[in-house]
C-alpha cells in the first residue's frame, strides 16, 4: 500500500513563516539587548549607531532565516519522519490491515516520546488483530452452528411432504424437527446472552439469598434427564446464604449440571456439594463421565469449543463460555479438574 500522504494544509517545507517570525523576534530581542548593554558603556556617537542600524537589521534577518531553516531540518528528521511512519501505520490499520506494526527508532534506554507512542500503537494493533480473529472465528462458528439445525429442519420438512409417508415415520420426523428447532432456539438464546455479558449490558444485582435452595431447585429441573439415563445423584448441600446475583448464578448451575448429565454414561454418578468458606461458598459439581485431556481442559471455557466430538450434537459449545463470563462478572472463581475416562470436577468459589 502507498504511503499515507500528509494533509495539504500541513506545511512540510524547511521554511516556515511562523517559525521565522518567532526566531526574528527572539534574535532581534537578543541583539537589541546586547547592543544596548554594549552601547551603554561605550562612547559611540548616535550617527555611528544610526549608520550601522541597517546592517544590524540585515544581520538579524539573515540569522533569523538561518535559525528557521536549521529548525526546519531538525523538525524534518526528529518530528516529521516518526510522524509520517506512525501515520502510515494508522492509515493501514484503518484500512483493515491489522498486521500493521511500526519499527521503533531507538532501543530500550534511548527511547523518546515517539518510541513510547509506537510501542503503545503496536500493542493496540496486536489487540485489534486478536479481536478481529476472534470475531471472524465467532462468525464462522455461528454460521456453522446455525446451518446444522437448519439443514435438519429443511431435510425432514421435505420428507414430511411425502403423501405416502408411514405414520410412524411422520411422527419420528416431526420429533426430529422439534428437537432441531429447540437446539436452534437455545443456540440463539445463548448467543444473545453471551453478547450481552461480553458487552457489559447485564450488570449483577447482588442480594442475599439461600444458595443451597437455589442448587436444589436447579437439580430438580434436571430430574427427568438424570432418571432417564439412570444416574445416581449424590448431594452434600449445606444451608448457606450468599450475597450475589441469583439469576446470573442460575445460568452457571444449570450449565454445569447439564454438562455433567450429558457427559456421564448411563449408570454413572453425579455429585453436587456446597459448603461455606470464609464468609463465601464453594460449590463443586462432579461426574463420573468421560473426563477430558489437559489440552481440552485448557480450552474448555472458549466459545464454540467442543473437545468431545461424540457429544457435539448435544450442545453448541457456548455453555461453559457463558459460565466463565458470569463467573468473571460476579467476581467469583472457577476451575476444573479432570481425568480422561474417569470424570470431571468443576469448582466454583464465591467470595
From TrEMBL:
It holds the Pfam family HATPase_c. The chain crosses the membrane at residues 20-39, 51-73. Residues 77-133 form the HAMP domain. Its main location: membrane. SUPFAM superfamilies: ATPase domain of HSP90 chaperone/DNA topoisomerase II/histidine kinase, HAMP domain-like, Homodimeric domain of signal transducing histidine kinase. GO terms for cellular component: plasma membrane. GO terms for molecular function: ATP binding; phosphorelay sensor kinase activity. It catalyses: ATP + protein L-histidine = ADP + protein N-phospho-L-histidine. InterPro entries: HAMP_dom, HATPase_C_sf, HATPase_dom, His_kinase_dom, HisK_dim/P_dom, HisK_dim/P_sf, Sensor_HK_Regulatory, Sig_transdc_His_kin-like_C. Its EC number is 2.7.13.3. Keywords: ATP-binding, Cell membrane, Kinase, Membrane, Nucleotide-binding, Phosphoprotein, Transferase, Transmembrane, Transmembrane helix, Two-component regulatory system. It is a multi-pass membrane protein. It comes from the Bacteria. It is found in: Cell membrane. Residues 141-351 form the Histidine kinase domain. It is an enzyme of class 2 (transferase). This is histidine kinase. It comes from Paenibacillus riograndensis.
